Every structure is written in structure tokens, then in C-alpha cells.
Amino acid sequence: MPLFGLGTSHQGGYSHEAVVYALTQCGVRHIDTAERYGCEEQLGRAIKESMVSREDLWITNKLWPDNYGFSTAKKACLRSCSIMGLEYFDLYLMHWPGNFESRVSNREARAETWRALEELYKEGICKAIGVSNFLVHHLEQLKEDSSGVIPHVNQMEYHPYQQSSTVMEYCQKEGIVFEGYCPLAKGQLLDEPKVLHMAEKHRRTPAQICIRWSLQNGVVTIPKSTKIQRVRENCQVFDFQLDKTDMEALSKMHDGRHVTWDPSNIQ
Ligand SMILES: NC(=O)c1ccc[n+]([C@@H]2O[C@H](COP(=O)([O-])OP(=O)(O)OC[C@H]3O[C@@H](n4cnc5c(N)ncnc54)[C@H](OP(=O)(O)O)[C@@H]3O)[C@@H](O)[C@H]2O)c1
């Protein structure tokens, strides 16, 4: 799984130009999307336009809880593939541990949906399967309920304010790849004095400092931008290093805040 990818989103819009630019001019090979973001069709077009071979790409998609349940999940995945013009996903995630259907408990919905993902994996429609926003108790229950495949990846909010350390340690112990989203805390980190100071010290931008921090912690990261100059900037993070003092100073910024949603109330 490429350590660096480009995020896409419904919030803040989707930019066809930025995706094509990332693929053709910046060498980005990993793109993160979701059924929920409503840009599958446009993204499929951008991938085609880029002319990058399918086997060189890593495409992650996510299943929205509206479509949890065994047969609905399978149908939703096949529909997403068809909308994007793809034969398979490199990674397919359950987007959220909660279920929007009151007929079954969250745990039952997760287990039933996971069975569908296991089948999609065995059929080769999803080369890897995983979850997103799952805390330790969700992962433990899934392990008990599944027929043997444990999630390959758990995608979690991850930036200096929100380090999800307990989940990260659990994932490392269980052999689950810990992937981080919102590396810039949706921009909140970009005017932090400590980050600005480091940017000046390394002659880099605040966004590059934040992305580099994730990468140096070994965390897969997927910053999003709709602007081509920022896409380029965000990719230029492989030719400098933060030192131990910088890494520690950023790690001390954890205050537990979420800039998106917080799964801790989901049973
Ligand atoms: N699994 C989940 O539940 C979940 C939840 C949230 C996000 N995600 C994934 O993670 C990806 C990234 O998360 P995110 O977009 O929410 O947050 P983010 O990457 O932390 O921040 C994106 C914001 O920062 C701005 N930005 C990007 N690069 C910049 C730069 N170099 N300088 C200044 N501003 C910059 C963007 O604006 P412009 O677009 O205007 O440049 C946008 O407003 C998403 O696209 C999505 O794929 C997953």
C-alpha cells in the first residue's frame, strides 16, 4: 500500500483537475474515496484520463452505513466498481462502526457486512478489505464474529492533535495497517506557532511539516486538496527530514480533539 495518497471529499468540493494533475504530474498512485463523497463517477473519469495503468494504482473506496448488511453491501461494492469503471478495488473499507438501520445492533450489522467484504475479498473484487473509525472494542468484536479474515487496514483520524495511540498500538499488535486521515487537521494545524516555526526552520510549508510527521511515524497518509499548487506542495515531502526534537514537539500537541466525527459513543 503506498504510504502517500490523495484524499477526495464531498466537503470542499471535488476537483477533476487536481486529481488528473496528481496522477500525471506528481506521480501520485494512491487515491482515497468513498461512496459517500459522491464523486465516484468523476474520479473514474479522471483515472481514465490520466492513462495511468490500473495495476500501478491503489484505489481505496468505502462503504457507507446505509448499505450495511450482507447482500446490500455486496451490491453496493459492485455498483461502486461499475460507476468508477473499475474491475476491482485495492482496498474496500466499512466507513463507520455505526449502523443506520435500527433492525439490528451495530455489532450484528458490522458482522453481517464484514461477511460480505470477506466474500468480495475471496472473489478478488477487493484485493484488501478493512474498516475505518473502528476503536479497539469494535475490532475485538469483529475478530470474534468473523470467519477468519481480520481487517487489513483501519483508517483513522490522525494528526498531531489526534493521535489515536491506543488504536494504533492495537493495530500494530494485530498486524492491521494503521492509516491516517486529515493529516492537516482540515487546515487547523497550519497556523500553529510550533508548526510555523518548524516550517521556517526547514524552509518548508506548514502542510509539508504535518504530512512529513505522519510519514516519519510510519502512518499511511492521504491529504486532500482541490488546488493543483497545493497538491504539488503536499507531494514534495520525501526530500527532507524532521529531527527528533521536531517529532517530539509535534507529538506533544495531542489534545484529543476530532476535526471530523468521533466514534467513541458507538457501541
Ligand atoms: N474515513 C473517514 O471517515 C474520513 C474522514 C475524513 C476524511 N477522510 C479522507 O481523508 C482525506 C483528507 O482529509 P480532509 O480533506 O478532511 O482533511 P486534510 O487533508 O487534513 O485537510 C484538507 C484541507 O486543507 C486544505 N489544504 C490542503 N493542502 C493544503 C496546503 N498545502 N496548504 C493549505 N491548505 C491546504 C484543503 O483545502 P483546498 O482543497 O482548498 O486546498 C482542505 O480544506 C479526505 O479527502 C478523505 O479521503 C476520511
TrEMBL record:
Residue ranges of domain NADP-dependent oxidoreductase in the record: 14-252
Keywords on record: Oxidoreductase
Membrane-spanning ranges: none
Active site: Y37
Site features described as Lowers pKa of active site Tyr, chain residue numbers: K62
Ligand binding (substrate): H95
CDD domains: AKR_CeZK1290-like
Domain of life of the native organism: Eukaryota
GO MF annotation: an example: oxidoreductase activity
Keyword Transit peptide: no
Keyword Acetylation set for record: no
InterPro entries in the record: AKR, Aldo/ket_reductase_CS, NAD(P)_OxRdtase_dom_sf, NADP_OxRdtase_dom
Family statement drawn from the similarity comment of this UniProt entry: Belongs to the aldo/keto reductase family.
Protein name, per record: NADP-dependent oxidoreductase domain-containing protein
Organism listed in the record: Knipowitschia caucasica
